[in-house]
Every structure is written in C-alpha cells, then in structure tokens.
Amino acid sequence: MPDQGTEIDRDRxxxxxxxxxxxxxxxxxxxxxxxxxxxxxxSNVLLLNAxxxxxxxxxxxxxxxxxxMMVGYNSNDFDTLxxxxxxxxxxxxEWDMLDEQGHQEWGVSALLSYAKLKNGICEYAYSPALxxxxxxxxxxxxxxxxxxxxxxxxxxxxxxxxCYRFVRTGSTGWWSLEIFRxxxxxxxxxxxxxxxxxxxxxxxPAVAEVNKxxxxxxxxxxxxKGRSVSDxxxxxxxxxxxxxxxxxxxxxxxxxxxxxxxxxxxVSDRLARQWITEHGSEYVQEKLDYVASQDGVKSRxxxxxxxIKGDYTPVESEPRMTPEQQAQVDATLTARAVEQAQEAxxxxxxxxxxxxxxxQLDIVQDLVSRRNPTQRDADKRLFMTSLESDLDREHFRxxxxxxxxxxxxxxxxxxxxxxxxxxx
Length: 424
Prior knowledge:
The protein is an alpha+beta fold. It has three domains: 10-245, Winged helix-like DNA-binding domain superfamily/Winged helix DNA-binding domain (Arc Repressor Mutant, subunit A, Orthogonal Bundle); 250-351, no CATH class; 371-422, no CATH class. It contains 18 helices and eleven strands. The chain has helices at residues 26-29, 37-50, 64-71, 78-90, 128-135, 145-148, 154-164, 177-183, 195-213, 250-254, 257-264, 269-279, 281-292, 300-310, 323-369, 373-384, 390-399, 407-417, and strands at residues 21-25, 31-32, 60-63, 92-98, 104-110, 114-118, 121-125, 140-144, 175-176, 216-225, 228-238. The strands form four sheets. The chain has a three-stranded antiparallel β-sheet. Strands 3-7-6 form a three-stranded antiparallel β-sheet. Strands 9-11-10 form a three-stranded antiparallel β-sheet. The longest helix is centred in the last third of the chain and has 47 residues, at 323-369. The radius of gyration is 25 Å and the shape is globular. Residues 1-7, 24-29, 138-142 and 243-248 have low confidence and may be disordered. One of its GO terms (biological process) is DNA replication initiation. Belongs to the initiator RepB protein family. Pfam families: Rep3_C, Rep3_N. This is Protein involved in initiation of plasmid replication. One of its GO terms (molecular function) is DNA-directed DNA polymerase activity.
C-alpha cells in the first residue's frame, strides 16, 4: 500500500534522478488508458531515470526500493510495484503528429516494452519508436517530480501534465470533449458522456487540485454547438504561491555544450545558467562564436557579456576601436562584470534560501501527516492564535501548512513542536 509518510533518501539518488524534472513529449502525455495516480507518477519517475540514455541504451535499471519511495509506495511493497509495472506494460501510448518533413505520423506503443524485478533491481525498456518520441526535445513539457508528489488524484496530475507544456502560450487551445475524455482516461465511460457529470466529477476537482498543488493556475473555458458543450480549453498562468517549490534543471543544463563553453571562458556557474535560461542555448552559442571570431579583444569575458546584452552580430559589428577606446570599454565592462557577479551571488543566495525553505516545508508536511485528526485541528488552532493580521489568517485558512505568506512562521512553529525533525 502507498506510504505517504515515507521520506526519500536523496543520497541514494544519482544521475538524472537528482534533477527533479523530466522532459516529456506530447506523445507520452497523451496516453490511451486509465492510470491511477501512483501509476502515473511511476511512469514519470521511470522516464526521468532513463532520460539521459533513452536512445542509446536498450534497457534501464533503478534500485527497486528507491523507485518505490520516490513514487510513494512502501519500500517493501513489491506486490503493488509489480502490479503497477504490469499496468504500464499493458497501457498504450498513441501519437499523431507531423514529422520534420511535414508528413503526418501516427504511432502506437506500450508505455513499457518490458519490466522485471530481480535481486532488488528494477530493469525495464521502451520500444525504440516510443523512446525516440520521448527524447525529442522539440515539443515537450517539463514535468517536475517534486511538484507531482503534491497530487492526490490521477485526474489532477493528468490535467497538470497536459496543461503545463502550454504555460508559455497561456492556453491549451481547444480540445474536443472526445479528446479531453481520452486525455483524462474516462473515454470508455457512458457516465462521462454527459458534460454535467464530466464537469462535476472530473473537471472541477482536477482544476481545484492543479491550482492548489502545482506551479500553474488553470481556468477552463467551454465552447458550444447549439445547446451542447463541444469543446474545452484551459487558460494557464504561473502560480506565484508555488514559486518557492520550483527546482531548476541545473544538472541537465550543466551537461549542455554551451554551458561547458561558457565555463571555459570563465563565466560563473550561476551566470552561465542564467544566460542560457534567459536567452536560450542557441543565442548564447551564437555570441560565443561571434566573440571567438574577433581579433584583438583583451577582455573576452567582458566582451561576451556586452555581446549577449547588446545582441552583437557579424553584420552589425562596429569598426575597430583605438587602444584608448578599447581601454575605456574594458574598464566599463569590468565594472559591469563585478556588478553582475554580485547580482548572481545574491540570486544564488536567494535560491538556496528558497530550496532550504522548501525542504523545511516538506518536513512540516511529513510531520502533519503523522498526526491524528484531533491533533491536526489543535495544531491549526494554536498556530492561528499567533497570526496578527487578517490577511495572514485568511491565507492560512485557504492554503493551510503550505501557506507561502506564513512560511517563516509555520517553520518556526513546527521547530518548537518537533525540534529533532529539523536537526539536520
């Protein structure tokens, strides 16, 4: 049975599993079948573990106890793990998309071609066709394994997966109700042919959970043909209340050639990742190539900063400067580099603070889960007495122990109740 109180030993996680995020292609998100919440989480963790060698290795392995804990199973409950792996091998993924030449491509594959447990190790594989689709970076969503642990329903997680890849465009676009039922795994039910039932039992609860538990806010809109609802779409924006739980894909970014080239030029780790995040790897590589083609540059790091900020190109390059002009530019760029380094250090400090706070709030959630209902009610009432403003109290009523506005007070409150839990 699932063990929600199980804490993951992160020292046991290696490689891709330490990243917390996984690129998930449209073909993988649009699953034909009905997965439970834990089975959907299991699919994401397996993909995360395999992603770096998805197209180069024929099979992949992961410690079975680590896998069970990451998904939320009791680490000794191998019967449930076996049943879930069997379900993934029997579940179909279907894709219908354009290839690079603009030709329509349809395909179908089992989510896993096989899986086995032996000597405490889970070994599994994907079909070559599906592996290629899963690894395609052109159309993907970043599924955050840290965020997915907040979900308590499969429909909520399914909606999150299908909406998150559209966060930059702000809308999913229109889906027919037939497609939407398929995405949510209820296409075979006569009960959900009625939009009234679909809205009450699937759409409203899933939207509420996404908005409460994830880093995005979604809002459904419907379109009718006559009197009947025919299509649905979701407007999407970022959820500022969940910003502290964001964990970036630092390890994945550090494997990029452009990141390594920046580090070779003396750019700091934080600044390199910041440039790649803000401008994209192709843009940054273009500026690296531009600076490398210039002769007589004394401060290549400073010139690279100026090239990235000013979008220097070979066509727009200015005439060669005099030594005096170059010295003045170098002095300006050096001062700017110092300023940006200070900003990067401050940014890093804030990021560390957010990560520490997120870890402490994870501990709080674990402590809360161990209390009985009477204790939980008493804890909430006691904490409410320490809040001075109506805004703080209302925010706590809405978000409970995940109230970002009261995070510092929440952590302090539980540190007094359970100091040993925060000892590390």
